[in-house]
Design brief:
With about 500 residues, this protein is of the alpha/beta class. Helices cover about 30% and strands about 20% of the residues.
Amino acid sequence: MIYDLGKKNKNEIKKEFDIAIIGCGTVGLITSVLLKKKGFSVVTLESGSLKQNSNFNNLNKCIFKKNKYLSAHNGRYRCIGGTSTRWGGGLLPFSDSDLDENFWPIKNKNLKKYLSKIENIFGITKSVYSDKKILDDPNFIARYAKIPKFKYRNVYNIFFKYINSYKGPEVWINATVNNFKIKKNRLYEIDAVSKNKSKICISAKQFLFCTGAIEITKLLLIINKKNKNIITNKKNILGHFFSDHISLPIADIKNPNLDKISKYFSYDFRNGIRRMRIEMTEKSVLRKKLPPFFIHIPNFTKRDETYMSLRKILQSIQKKEFPKIKNFIKIIKNFSWIINFLIHRIFKKKLLFPKNINIKLHLVIEQVPDISNKISLSNKIDIFNMNLPEITWSVSKLDKKNIQKVINEFKKFCATSRNIEIGEINFRSIKKINKDLKNFTGIHHPAGTTKISKTNRNGIVDKNLRLFNIKNSYVLSTSVFPKGCGSNPTMTLLMFALRLIDKISKKN
């Protein structure tokens, strides 16, 4: 059941639960529902409201040093469902080779057994995620990101009835956690407040931090500062090695072969909804000299007004809102577009690729972990008297070298491959790429600041995501990922969540 702390009087509310979860976004909501179904008493505290209508929430304000990491402002949503209310929906697991044993204390096989459960939650097909036949190359393979229908991308839509019933977990919105009480290396109580200064105090046996990577890092830095470095006394771990995937166009496609581009890179509806990208094979020799990456043609619908109108209608369904009439009118006016769209969608099982647009190949590459890229606490505070996070972040010289190496290797592939003749591929100059990198501000895949590790000498959480030095608290966030790897992080994070649920259930 959902309760609004902002609508309560200023009397202090006290409650006890088996498990308290901070954050009711994509992973927090799923985790709270599944733990409740396991028989635990669960409370979930969400700083935001039911919805976040704007792209920016004042509580997400950050201080930037060096470059602006604007994903900290415009890619974070405080509401039930969190980022999944806007999310594009790409789901695919990391490859086995991505989880380098020098960085990861867990093997991918221990996570992939949860794959089918995640597919069931989001209603996606159980088809394979790669196709070895398309490229037939020792170094490159076609992989597919599976995409849920718009209404299932928002996890709040999936669990709407359960969350709003008395069977579901207790969820408090407008409840910002701002105080932590610790005794003998155990967190035993947290306090949350609303803007009208109402307060709720939660005691629990176990605590799960499920907010976004930046917010979790901020909270752990505050706990560490106020409790004599209880999380870590090492200065170069917590908050350091902050990274994101780097994304930029690397080539323009002249005289495009729209049939082949549509065949390979358009939305594919033959077996659920899928989109193809090109990655390194598991045993590629390139893995010894390059970080993980993928190459794709990004969402072209943003460049076509009629497509955008359709997309906005579907996004309204995702956000649980009624679509705007003007978007229906724009589609209806373009009758010929509707006919072509339906032909491609129904008979060819593809999304119609628009003509007369500038088609580009994009590279998405793992940023090399760098100790100087970090999240720390600034001296400025928010309305709840909490320090704002200060982000020091930039693209390094090594990142730039890696990008150029990838381009060189992909040029070789394009020169020899007959399977992907999509047009005249004009690769961009180093000068143009470096200019794009100056304006790069992140793609909402933050990692590295609360690293998973074998020991507390190198990380913040163990292989089960438990904080090394706070025995009953866990971190469920991409911030535990020591590296960005070669795919979108959501699927792997959700597999970690289901694994953690199993671990907690077996202990109790």
